Write the structure tokens for this entry.
Amino acid sequence: MIKKFSAIFLSVFLLLPLSVSAEMEIFKIGYVVVEKILKEAPQTAASNKKLEKEFKSRTDGLQKKVKAIQKQEKDFNKNSVTMSDTERQKAQKKIQNSKIEIQRIERELREDIDIRRREEIGKLQQKINEAIEEMAKTDKYDLILYQGVAYASKEIDITDKLIKVLSKTK
């Protein structure tokens, strides 16, 4: 009895994949490399130019302050021999305070740029998602993946095609 049950179970188990695969439809799947899109999409270059323009005056001001401190240090090194101890200490303290101030300004600038860059990347990701949705509907994709994929073959990589779609939308 156990042998009959095993034989029936085995035959049903072996035939099951055939019946399931006969009923399954073929799905159209695509894969997108987001990092490549973020590097090559025209919106990325436009975003970088926008950020550069937005923060140009602050970066230029910071560079001027750095040059001014470098000049102060050069003058101090040149004149420190002829200075009294109190003058030397006062000059050193002034230079040190200026360096601390520059570091603070630089850190704030970096943080502000990072915040704005994340905002711009968020906008680009929204455009990417919209373009993916549009492409999925137009080209009748059932599934488009872009994160958490261990492997995707070149046949389903639609990154370049998506970049072209993004190039058409500004």
Summary: Residues 97 and 170 are 46 Å apart (CA to CA). Strands lie at 29-31, 143-145. The domain at 25-168 is CATH 3.30.910.20 (Protein Binding, DinI Protein; Chain A). The longest helix spans residues 85-138.
